[in-house]
Each structure stands twice: as structure tokens, then as C-alpha cells.
Amino acid sequence: MTLQRFFKHRWIDHKDVERLLPQAAVENLQALVLQSERHHSGEICICVEGGLPLSYLWKGLTARQRAVTLFGKLRVWDTEANNGVLIYLQIADRAIEIVADRGLNAHVTAAEWQSVVAALREQLKGGGCEAGLIEAVSAVDALLAEHFPLRPGTINPNELPDRVVIL
């Protein structure tokens, strides 16, 4: 671990995330996730983190490893059809990770996931955090609706909270 990386991760925190993604944006994203889950049986979770925890920095762990850990901690894996998706954005390293459960991953190629990440990255370069996350949620929604559509007359039981997790 370099000293520069250490200080960058310790310097950037949840207050920086709140400046990047104000409360109104968080509420819009939560509403979008809720609306999205009316089209399919999947679950979408958004997590935005300023920097990696100290324990991750000491061990030299990556944003991908953090996203996989949060996928478990936030119980995104705990859906009946194994079709939960975590959209993880980590500010300090400008890392974007999408972790999908095995039910959806069986249907979606790595290239499709990379396309979602690339579109979000482009929006972030232009300063559009909210717009990028909206685009990412919409893309994940389309994939879930394609592979796990709700049958007519059924309702998605909302197995996970729709809140945006800010760490």
C-alpha cells in the first residue's frame, strides 16, 4: 500500500459521497429502484462508498473484493431466484463494480456487464454521478426484465430494501 493511496482513502469519506450524491439524488435513485422492481423478480442494490476501510487498505484488497463482501453483508445474494445485483461505486479509486448473483449471471455475459460499467464510467467523467447511476439501474432493470420478468398478475415481493447505501 502506498502512502498516497492510504491518505486518499482516509481523506474521502461519506460526507464527500453526500456532496457527490445529495439527498434529492438518493431519493430519486431509491424511487427508480422501487419502480424498476415492478418489471421483474430481481433485486437491485446501490452502494456508494468514499474509500476502503482501513483493514482493506492494510491487506491491499481491491474495490472488487470490497464489493463482493458488501454483496454478502447487504444480503443481495439472499433472493429466491438468486437474481440480486449490487451496483458498487467507490469514490477514492473511482472504482465501479457490479456483482450479480448466479441466477442472473447465468444469462448475462461479461461483455454486457462491462457495457453497463463503461456507460456509468463515462457519466462519472462528466460529473454526472446521479445520471450515471440512473443509467446503470436502467440497464440492470432491462437485463432483469428480460431474464426474470414478472408473470402477469404477480408482484415482486421486494426481498431487499430499496435504499441507497452510503458508506
Q: Quote the distance from N terminus to C terminus.
A: 21 Å
The largest sheet has its strands arranged as 3-2-1-4
| Secondary-structure element pattern, one letter each | HHHEHHEEHHHE
Strand content: 5-15%
**Number of DSSP strand runs:** 4
Structural class: alpha/beta
Helix content: 40-55%
Reported for the largest beta sheet, the result is:
4 strands, mixed
- Could you list the spans in which at least 5 consecutive residues all have pLDDT below 50? none
Structure characterization notes:
This protein has 167 residues and is an alpha/beta fold. 51% of the residues lie in helices and 13% in strands. The chain has a 4-stranded mixed beta sheet with strand order 3-2-1-4, with helices on both faces. Strand 2 and strand 3 form a beta hairpin. The model has no long low-confidence stretch (mean pLDDT 93).
Keywords, please?
single chain; 167 residues; alpha/beta; 8 helices; 4 strands; globular
Please describe the topology of this protein.
Elements: H1 3-11, H2 14-20, H3 23-36, E1 43-49, H4 54-59, H5 63-73, E2 84-90, E3 95-100, H6 102-105, H7 110-125, H8 129-147, E4 165-166
Parallel strand pairs: 1-2, 1-4
Antiparallel strand pairs: 2-3
Helix pairs in contact: 3-8, 7-8
Short description:
The chain has helices at 3-11, 14-20, 23-36, 54-59, 63-73, 102-105, 110-125, 129-147; strands spanning 43-49, 84-90, 95-100, 165-166. With 167 residues, it is α/β, with parallel strands linked by helices.
